[in-house]
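Student: Please help interpret what follows.
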Amino acid sequence: MSDVTIASFNVKNLIGPEQEYYEFQKYTAEEYAWKRDWLADQVLTLDADVIGFQEVFEPDALEDVMEEADQRARALNDVAQPARGVGYGRKAIFRRLKLEGYANAAVAFAPNLNDSEPGQRRPGLAVVSRFGFVGEPEVIQDIDPPLEVPFSALGGETGAGSFTLKRLSRPILKVRIAMGGRVVTLFNCHLKSKLGEYDRPPGADFAPAADLTDYDPVGRALGSLRAGLRRMGEAFVLRRLIVAELKAGNPVIVLGDFNDHENAVSSEIIAGEIPFKNYAWMLRHDAQHAGDRYSREEARQIREDVEAMRLHSAESLFVQKSLRDMVYTATFGGKFESIDRIYLSRHFLPGTPDTVGEMTYFSVLNDHLTDGSHPEAPYNKLASDHGQIMAHLRLRDGAA
């Protein structure tokens, strides 16, 4: 058996000092040092084998954080690990206390194609892996050919319209990692946020709906519609990539910032359908009469086909087997929710036909979060406005 830990970490606008990432927003040298210190401490607490990072503007800043975490790991090991030859050094407690560090870890960075000049920056993604990568990491952002979603005509309607998506708001980073004697496909993503996309007329200094002194509820609703359509379109693009890997027989892990709760439509698109207990009561898709229903054998096959393409939330798996009834990774205005998740294909569920192991525990670091109601809320600028999550996997040893 091999124990592996997989984490997701939205670092909130990681960039070097004195660089304007969004309009009028940048870190002083002191603020950057504080942020690097906090991030390195969280990385050290996670001590994960694989970490997917979101909101990374530059790989140099991430490498700076990882180097700081690695230096702290070495310092702690010097204190906590017995000298060689000491008999009690073989005790399990010292194996638990040892930190692996990241000196030899591989880093894959996916820049954002929408990134531009100072004040208009757009963040990318990264994956850090102690196991390295199998093959070259892949970055998916431009969609070629574009995603065209026609809407069905209703009644006698013609020309019902369509939705077109040519580029993702942020890239999807796809890597292959050898773990437990096999290769696992991992996707790191950051879907479009709920922040509205407001239309700015040519030559205007700002979008009218962005002017809160002249509140436009309809214009802001339209902005939310644009954001929602984009997020669901991005979810479909990711789902298509996931299914291709599952059909190839590859174990899949998907992690990141999904910017919506687990039961949202975008999340359900990514995870796949939940099968009915029994399809034998349903009319066939090509029914010729009222009693023309799926056979028991067809119902069994339908369930198997659906189950094979599903992903399972690590958080939900944990809640089902523990006494904890709430996990949250983001909070604002008194609303607590999980928008950061780790999804696992059924390869990581015990008792399934193609299992390679199972999740034994799920961790969340969220004590630093505030809901915006307290004076210390701006502290999140230097820390993160997201909790960090980690899945603990126990894998059967197998041939890669």
Remarks:
- The longest strand covers residues 162-179.
- The two ends are 14 Å apart (CA to CA).
